[in-house]
Amino acid sequence: MSYDYIIIGAGSAGCVLANRLSAEAGVSVLLLEAGAPDKKLEIHIPAAYSKLNRTSVDWAYWTEPQEHVDGRRMYLPRGKTLGGSSSTNAMAYIRGNRTDYDAWEAQGNAGWAYDAILPYFKRSERNEQLARLNATYHSGDGLLNVTYATRFKTPLADAFVAACMETGIRENHDFNGAEQEGAGLFQFTIKDGKRHSTATAFLKPALKRPNLTVRTQAHTKRIVLDNGRAVGVEVFTGKQTTETIRANREVILSAGSFNSPQTLMLSGIGAADELRRHRIDVQLDLPGVGQNLQDHLFAGVSTLASSLIGSNNWLRPHKQLQGLWQFLTAKTGPLTISPLEANAFVRTEAQLTQPDLQLHFAPIHVGDTYEADFYDINTFPKNADGWSILPTLLKPTSRGYVGLRSANALDAPVIQPNFMSTDKDRQLLLTGTKLAMEINQATAFSQFRQRALIPAELASDDELMAHIRKIVETVYHPVGTCRMGSDEGSVVNSQLQVRGIEGLRVVDASIMPTIVSGNTNAPVIMIAEKAADLILGRELAKAVNRQTATMT
């Protein structure tokens, strides 16, 4: 059997591509997903997102021991179901900063400057609050629902914004508009109180098309190459048996920043010495595959509240049942929101041209023992409420890599991010922690604040760094391992075609040359929207491009 296009991975990018490519008359599309369908109830309940970690819908990867983080192996959740990580993430809708994309183009990636990619953000978006926003930057016509939390909000969210303003951070009602810097409430990929993943928004409306085939629990073993061209995919049908499916036009790799480079290497595309070490026949010596791994890191500052106004108390069994009843009967209550509520983008130095620090705000605290696991909400204290401010590196300078553990596609890859390996990253997290502590002491929090939990209010820089090493986690935004560029170290060109191989593209977060300034799901969806036009040889209407080109 053969198809015109075979998409490997039904994650955030794969679902968008499946919709856009199958909308083209006369082409056949196959979408392959290693995980199962997105039937797990917790996927669709926004506040239940952490209950998805380390389950059947999570790849549940781990880093190698991290030398600069007390030797810890750090957990890396990745969605393994239809929708990928858009079915398991915290649903934050953040596009990044204009300068992120302008820098991509300046590095030799024509067509990826902000003015050129803004229409692709807009094409996806159906913003519920469009009337309140600048339509130059937003749309109400797309498939992906974007909204502020309208069905439940703690008073801590507004207190955080007010506290930021007290410390000199201006208010900003729209991080995805003209300016990113400032403090405000998050927008989310939520619709009618339920998660709006790319599987729900893009894939399911397209399933009725006869030219689209979706296969779940189909783990790709390798891409089949013939004389420098991708001609198909070999897929596991059992642990020892495989099936080869032919691609008439292109194979599109959308397996994410860990699995996309792994799949390329298993197919013989990568650093020749690494491939030979695992006895893989070298099809193309492409040393950049798996290199340039980047991810956002956050530390945590937690405060105990004086009353039950946050989310900790909703973790108690009877409160969970109450919240579930509200969700099931009316789609209201605390289960309709992300664990995040508010956010701020700040510049730690006045001369910077863009924010270098993000402050995620969550109306929940993690106690004072370092025993709480950010990715397992059941480990959080349940008898007293509080809040956490999570200072986050926007432009980490540490770089890592993804490698092969073996030539077996069922084995997890080696993931070595080298977190906090540069002094710049360590010092910026220290600066962010101090800023979060300052915000916690603002008058806006005085009516809610009982006491600081971690770190202690009076702590030396050495003590704060010890705190950071204990608590720091990834924001699960891995990017860069199939870097777009025009130099010898890049993996794909600006058309997202793998350099030196015909009929093969990579379309996911791994193509980012540098990480964007903010949560990565919306940018991945944008990448897929643009990729669909590149694959089909189309461009957005010239009138739209002329409009964005005149923006300042």
TrEMBL record:
InterPro entries: FAD/NAD-bd_sf, GMC_OxRdtase, GMC_OxRdtase_N, GMC_OxRtase_C. Keywords: FAD, Flavoprotein. Residues 396-528 form the Glucose-methanol-choline oxidoreductase C-terminal domain. Pfam families: GMC_oxred_C, GMC_oxred_N. GO terms for molecular function: flavin adenine dinucleotide binding; oxidoreductase activity, acting on CH-OH group of donors. Its cofactor is FAD. It comes from the Bacteria. Residues 3-297 form the Glucose-methanol-choline oxidoreductase N-terminal domain. Belongs to the GMC oxidoreductase family. PANTHER family: CHOLINE DEHYDROGENASE, MITOCHONDRIAL (PTHR11552:SF147), GLUCOSE-METHANOL-CHOLINE GMC OXIDOREDUCTASE (PTHR11552). This is GMC family oxidoreductase N-terminal domain-containing protein.
